Amino acid sequence: MRVKIRGALFHCGTCRKDYSNPFGHMCVSRMGRAAGRTKLKPSLSAKCQKCRKNMGNPLTHTCTTRTDFKRRTAKAKKDAAAAKRKARPDHPRPSACQDGSCKRSGCVAWREGRADGYRDGYDDGFPDGVTACPLAHI
Known about the structure:
Layout: E1 3-11, E2 18-19, E3 39-48, E4 54-55, H1 69-87, H2 105-120
Antiparallel strand pairs: 1-2, 1-3, 3-4
C-alpha cells in the first residue's frame, strides 16, 4: 500500500489555509472578513494512493474501490425488460382479433359489447336515419 503524506506548518488566520512556506503564501479572502491570528500549527495527513481517501491510521486502513455495479445492474435489468417487450408478439386491435377465446380484456369487452349491441338492434342501424331517432337533434 502506497501512502502520500502531506503536512503544513502554519495556519493563516485570514483565509484559514494551511501552508508551510510563509514567503510563498498568497492570502485570498472575501471583503469584510476580519483578519485573524496566523499561528504555528503543524499538521500531518496521509492519503491512500489507491482509493484516494484520507487515512487516520495507515495500519488499519482498508481500501474501498468505487465500482459502477448499481449502474450496470440497472442497465441490464432495463435491457432485459426491453428485450422481453420486443419478444412479445404483436396483438391486433380488439375489433380485428380473430381468436374467439382471447382472454385480453379489450377483446373480451369488445366481443361482449358487440353481442349486446347486435341483440339490441344497433348492428342494423336506424332504417329512417336521424328522423327515426327518439332523441332531440338540432
